[in-house]
Amino acid sequence: MTKTSSVAGPRSRRLFAAAKQRIPGGVNSPVRAFNRLGGSPPVIVQGKGAYLTDADGRRYIDYVLSWGPLILGHAHPKVVRAVQQAATKGLSFGASTPSETELATLICKALPGMDQLRLVSSGTEATMSALRLARAATGRDIIVKCDGCYHGHADYLLVAAGSGCATLNQPDSAGVPASFAAHTISVPYNDVAAMERVFRKNRGRIAAIIIEPVAGNMGLILPKAGYLKSLRELCDAHGTLLVFDEVMTGFRTAWGGYQRLCQVQPDLTCLGKVVGGGMPVGAYGGRRDLMAHLAPLGNCYQAGTLSGNPISVAAGLATLKQVAKTNFYPQQAAQLTRLLTGLRDLAAKRNIPIQLAQSGTMWGFFFSEKPVLSLADALQSDTKRWKKFCLALYRNGVYLAPSPFEAAFWSSAHGTAEINQTLQAAALAFDDC
Ligand SMILES: *Cc1c(COP(=O)(O)O)cnc(C)c1O
């Protein structure tokens, strides 16, 4: 193995070199880049159950799972069959279908307070459209978000969106006019006082708070007890809408979403990832009176050529029908807890300070002495140690996101064998760091 790109084998390296010729940075989404881990990623040729296989024939236990959607693991037979059957009847009609209503009904029944929803094709579209709707419904412009929360790549949401350059009202990305970000305010996660200050200063001007109820785009950070409830009360007191971005947490932390666990009801919810079962799907929905602002009922416009296409809907429906089974979430979460307990013990034996977090089938860790409650805390974690740990895991057949600021996932295809193998790899990796 060469020292610079020990993660990828020779075939992957060759394929990635070709990718870099035609695709900027070799990747179609920047989070896939392995810049922190030597530059060249394993190039994936197959996924099956809990495992990925790369171009060099190396197998990995996958804890990325396409960044969340694959809660049943790769190529689940029921999902694959549903997609194949739907495909024989036509890929897309751009017209009403029975299956889109079936998916909408299933999702609405799972989320108390969601009377109606719109299907779109990505999480980005869901958040962007939900906030347009929030602005239309309130007649206000300002959106408040939290540092380190990612809500897709709409211009005005690329403010303190999970990166280190968290400055008020300043876009994170080149190509976003400052004026586009001027209506976005970002405050620290888990900080009610900061949120209250923003509301005092902008009385009557805030359309919505958008928040990941469990933050999964700066590592995994759980909300403090009572935090989300305080946001609900603040919104109610100021006529502001509360938007939960459950693109990652929806049908991952619990049936429905984290709102069922924390018992705080948002006005609007954004979904994606698991509800598409690996195909491109997003959704946003909420109270009937709010959704009535959307065209053709109202004057808030949002559209999509492939929205609710039968293939994506088939994958989503097949996935949700599996996870709807009684005890799916408690059983999977209990298995994942066994993995995390094992990791905690291995680290403790070596006096390595680690903060592990879990919410349902999501998990994450930071190498840190103190609890991690915000982006600022996350940025103070030991990323050098993370790098050594992560590189060793890859060498030993465990695939994690190539950044210390990403959540990890669990699927029902993972089990005791994968837990044991992961813990063996982790023991070696902890010895290395
Ligand atoms: C992934 C994600 C998005 C964006 O979804 P895409 O389908 O990648 O556009 C938005 N919000 C959250 C919380 C996410 O995790």
Overview of this protein structure:
The structure is a single chain. With 433 residues, the chain is α/β, with parallel strands linked by helices. The protein has two domains: 10-75 and 327-432, Aspartate Aminotransferase, domain 1; 77-323, Aspartate Aminotransferase, domain 2, CATH 3.40.640.10. The chain is 37% helix and 14% strand. It is built from 14 helices and 14 strands. The strands form three sheets. The chain has a seven-stranded mixed sheet, with helices on both faces. Strand 11 (355-359) and strand 12 form a beta hairpin. Helix 13 (383-395) packs across helix 14 (416-432). The radius of gyration is 21 Å and the shape is globular. It starts with 9 loop residues before the first helix and ends with a helix.
Approximately how much beta-strand content do the residues carry? 5-15%
Bound molecules: pyridoxal-5'-phosphate
CATH superfamily of the largest domain: Type I PLP-dependent aspartate aminotransferase-like (Major domain)
General shape:
globular
Gyration radius from CA atoms, angstroms = 21 Å
Strand order of the largest sheet: 4-10-9-8-7-5-6
Look up the CATH topology of the largest domain. Aspartate Aminotransferase, domain 2
Number of helices: 14
Kindly summarize this structure in a few lines.
This protein has 433 residues and is of the alpha/beta class. It has helices spanning 10-22, 77-88, 98-110, 123-138, 178-181, 192-201, 227-238, 258-262, 288-291, 310-323, 328-349, 375-379, 383-395, 416-432, and strands spanning 44-48, 51-54, 59-62, 116-120, 142-146, 184-187, 206-211, 241-245, 268-271, 282-286, 355-359, 362-366, 398-399, 408-409. It folds into two domains: 10-75 and 327-432, Aspartate Aminotransferase, domain 1, CATH 3.90.1150; 77-323, Type I PLP-dependent aspartate aminotransferase-like (Major domain) (Aspartate Aminotransferase, domain 2), CATH 3.40.640.
